[in-house]
Amino acid sequence: MLSGIYSLFAAAIFVELDAVDVAFTEASVGAGISTMLMLGTLALTTRLEKIPTYMPILPLLVVVATGAALIYGTLDMPRFGDPNAPIHQHVVPRYIEDMPKEIGVPNVVTAVLASYRGYDTLGEVTVIFTAGIGVLVLLGGGRRERPGGRRAGGRGGPS
Amino acid sequence: MELVQGLYNYWIAMILMMAGFYVVISRGNLIKKIVGLNIFQTSVFLLYISMGAVEGGTAPILEEGLTRFSNPLPHVLILTAIVVGVATTALGLALIVRINEAYGTVEEEEIHAQDEPA
């Protein structure tokens, strides 16, 4: 439940950062499908977590050290919202200038996704297909009876 | 002060990332680990999207009278990443369901304990 709320909240942040397409996807895929998958897994396994008996000091140290290193690494990054950041200087101005006559779709994200970076999207579909096959093999094909175990019901793939 | 105003977006992403990382390495429950991975993932999304944001820009949809847009390229990459992320999450959760069938538990320690005598 919380993870669904978390995803919706992330979608709201993306809207605020002018990334409407990403927000749509996050809201539908992240908050919708992900939450459903999570709830399904919880229903098929168990809702109770074993409380750890020790205090996780070592993970805490590792996390703090890594976080400090990463934050140190951000110190010479371009400032937030800076229009002169290197990321805005290359490729994108050309997309925005030539896109209307080359593709003719008002939404730049759609044009880049479907046309300029079409192979990227093809690769994405390949990954989803592979993951879907993996899920089906792991769950749908499991018709073997296991002693002491439960059989998984037929659950659809993610795509 | 200028540092905080200019860099807080990265820092929020880093804090989220470390929260996810902490959940992944400190929890023995496999489902919790997946949740941690999801948080980690969202932090990377946030990092990319906030890099693409421009002061005073609008969403990258061409319209008369608008000249300054946020960078569409990170948006495209993250769209792909979100969908791939859900696919990998589904695969991980399927593995957990399978592990639960085989071992009757989703706790890492109990799984190791069951494996040891063999």
Provide the descriptors you would attach to this structure in a database record.
heterodimer, A: 159 residues, mainly alpha, 0% strand, disordered C terminus, B: 118 residues, Helix Hairpins
What does this protein look like?
The complex is a heterodimer of chains A (159) and B (118). Chain A is built from six helices and no strands. Chain A is mainly alpha-helical. Among the domains of chain A are: 1-47; 88-142, no CATH class. Chain A is extended. By secondary structure, chain B is mainly alpha-helical. Chain B has a single domain, classed as Orthogonal Bundle (Helix Hairpins), CATH 1.10.287. Chain B is built from four helices and no strands. Chain B has helices spanning 2-26, 30-52, 72-103, 108-115. Chain B starts with a helix and ends with a helix. The model of chain B has no long low-confidence stretch (mean pLDDT 84). The chains are: A mainly alpha (159), B mainly alpha (118). At the A-B interface, helix 1, helix 2, helix 3, helix 4 and helix 5 of A face helix 1, helix 2 and helix 3 of B.
